[in-house]
Amino acid sequence: MTNPLARSEAEDFLFKEAALLDAWRLEEWANLFTEDGEYLIPATDAPDGAPGTSLYLVYDDRHRLGERAKRLLKKTAHAEQPRSRTRHMSSNVMVAEAEGTVTPVFCNFVVFRSRMEKTDIYPGHAEYRLVHGSDGLRIAARRRFSTSTSCVPRARSASFSEACPTRRVRGFPRCPRPSAPAAGCSSPACRPAPCRRPGRNPAA
Amino acid sequence: MTALEHPSGSLAGLIIDDRQAARFKVNRHVFAEEDILALERERIFSRCWLYLGHVSEVSAAGSFVARRVGGRPLILTRGRDGALNALYNTCPHRGALVCRERAGNRRAFQCGYHAWAFDETGRFLGMPGREALPPNAGDGGQFDLVRVERMEEFRGFVFVCFDRGAQPLVDYLAGAAEYLAYVADQGENGMEIVEGTQDYSIAANWKLLQENSVDGYHGQPTHVTYFDYLRSRDGTTTNFGGSGPMGWVKNLGNGHAVSESIGLLPWGRPYARWAPGWGEEAKPEVEELNRRIMARLGPERGNVVANGDRNLIVFPNLVVNDIMATTVRTFYPVRPDYMEVSAWSLAPVGESVPSRDRRMRNFVEFLGPAGFASPDDIEMLELCQRGYANRAAAPWNDISRGMLSNAPKKTDELQMRTFWRRWRQLVSGDSSLELAGP
């Protein structure tokens, strides 16, 4: 079954997500995910690795990402006291062909984060798997990739949104190529999706 | 201000080790000054054994990893003869890096500049226009990649040392060897580094991370939100993580130390201590893994390997935390107030898919730049570093906990004093300074 999602709808959704994060409405952000939703960030040197067999930076099931949101709202979450000010920018949005009820959406992002007199910039790209819920779009999987080829600067910033890159950014976002399914991995994020970037996947 | 101009008057005076008064102080100068970092580069990072990698990262002939160790770009390769090679990653011709990838497998390294080529053992293979040089120009290996002065392996952990006259690795490791062996004994078919590196940086002095890695005293105040998470996940109201007298700490010699307990901590160990958050379905496998370790190693050693949690520091900058997962972590100063960290996950070879998955989930629930605990550690280290801007008025860190105790606990500070006594001995060059002590 196809369930066409317009790019403008996907963009509205990504902008809403960014607004929730920037406003520190983290529990509402967590509620954008489906009951079995996942949030993943692979290591900078193994972006194609599967989460159960490769070391990640974030490997959250729905419970853990909800707890991540709760944790970061506590005064005892020292890494975010005082809280960062952030701006999440999402662009270059591409909507792939739906796979049953799931629509893969790709985008680039930049996150600006300022805290305690320092500002860090985290570029990357993301793969979302969106589904239509009774109350609008929901996230079945959110996988964010750092563009960094090496070191995550002042790394705690990763604690609520985007782990990532560095002052020595040299790479460019790759075509959002889904990982091969890992043996035994049942994660929705491990299911392949065709890439819709022009010229990359002529069969799609 | 240099160390010798400092009011303490000498390098050794940067640390106060007053055993009568049970008072141990470290001058904050050591975290903030360029002169100290220059001495550390000369007297620590150029003389101590430093962790390069794990044998599993270069298991196949021709495989290699390239990384910086002590500021030096190196390549670790597995030769077609099966032997390991530690090479300086610099062309003998003009000095360019001959390897630009972090890892891979190849039969030759070729410099991109003038196309000189080398085999995986560093031996010169050829160059364009060889006839322009005298026939004997490459004699004595002058065209080969330079080999690192010393490289030795212990139970899969590969170390290098830039001091040709250094003592053998196993002597250097002293009591830390026993603890690396406990970690290595987890896998009945050996251990391997899992794909993926957590690379991150911290705006703090490198020594603060070595201290933090064995500091049990900060657990409760710094990581309260992590323990909240465990309570939520495991559906229990147990108050774990209190700063009660859990476990013990030991001086392992040569500046190495361990903070250790057996079976007391609230998290699960994939090998092999079940936790409620994994669900009942995981229990039979975890219990079976535990039984197999006991059968293979005997009840005494098996209990230490399977049920023990240990935070090991190997001087100067290797951490092996064998806790809810096993992390191998090393880090280097870029500046006095800035370090770069690399951390890996070490796991038994042949681990089942569900067990490996539990391990990888467990690792990032606590550890790393987006874990539920490491970011708060990083924050504390950075706050310390900022505080050292006041070092002229407030010059001393206090590391005296447990100096009067005959049985120091994890929440004491013997493990840090062990590090600092070795640090002081090496940086001051005064080998008569005592490494043992309360």
The CATH class of the largest domain in chain B is Alpha Beta
Give the count of structural domains of chain B.
2
Main β-sheet of chain A, in a few words?
6 strands, mixed
Number of strands of chain B: 21
Shape of chain B: globular
Low-confidence stretches of chain B: none
Number of helices of chain B: 12
Number of alpha- plus pi-helical segments of chain A = 3
Detailed description of the structure:
- The complex is a heterodimer of chains A (204) and B (438).
- Chain A is of the alpha+beta class.
- Chain A has one domain (7-190): Nuclear Transport Factor 2, Chain: A (Roll), CATH 3.10.450.50.
- Chain A contains 3 helices and 6 strands.
- In chain B, strands 13, 14, 15, 16, 17, 18, 19 and 20 form an 8-stranded antiparallel beta sheet that branches. Chain B has a 4-stranded antiparallel beta sheet with strand order 6-5-4-7, with no helix packed on it. A 3-stranded antiparallel beta sheet of chain B has the order 1-2-21.
- Chains A and B meet through strand 2 and helix 3 of A and strand 14, helix 7, strand 20, helix 10 and helix 11 of B.
